[in-house]
Amino acid sequence: MSETTYRPEGQSFFVPALGSLYRSLDGLSELVLRIAVGALLIPHGLQKVGGFEGTAQFLASVGFVPGGFWAALLILVEIGGGLALVLGALTRPAAFAVFVFMLVAMWFHWSSGFFWTGGGWEYPALWAAAAFYFLIRGGGRYSVDRVLGREI
User: Fold this and answer.
1) By the 8 A CB rule, do 52 and 107 touch?
2) Rg (CA), the chain
3) What φ, ψ does residue 81 adopt, rounded to 5°?
4) Could you report the per-residue pLDDT of 116-135, keeping only the tens digit for each?
């Protein structure tokens, strides 16, 4: 990638030596973000496995019937999608599933306001934005998708 990836054409860095650092860490930064997003989703799914009945009842109470089906699907998205993102395997389908679920979560948290500390939509919005990034960009240089030479 050219240095212009990291700065608009015609502009220079305040510290010119940083251009080569940014270029050398390009693929690594994407890897770190992908692993963080995936790895942080997995515990949310595991938490729902432990409280499956409660999750199913909650989902049914807000209109996702049957609640057990939707709870299982949500667990699959968080654990399976999280693992897929960590590995960079089937990255786009996993990111799509996470993105859709987080948009739904934003909808349900909207009435609680913005801040996640009050149950608001801030947290699912961040997850949705991160998932959208991988939906569009794919798994990146250091991914199973890239090793296999195939991406959806």
Assistant:
1) no
2) 18
3) -65, -40
4) 899 999 999 999 999 999 99
Residue 35: inside a domain, yes or no?
yes
Name residue 9's amino acid.
Answer: E
Buried b (16+ CB within 10 A) or exposed e, 14-49: eeeeebeeeeeeeeeebbeebbebbeebbeebeebe
Contact 93, 53 (CB under 8 A): no
Does the residue 74 lie in any domain?
Answer: yes
Query: Does residue 146 form part of some domain?
Result: no
> Residue 107 sits in which domain range?
26-139
Helix or strand or coil: residue 29? helix
Can you tell me whether residue 82 is helix, strand or coil?
A: helix
113 phi/psi in degrees, rounded to 5: 90, -170
pLDDT confidence band for 7 (50 / 70 / 90): low
Three-state SS at 66: coil
Pairwise CA distance, residues 133 & 18, whole Å: 24
Q: What is the pLDDT of residue 18?
A: 85
**Residue 2: predicted pLDDT:** 40
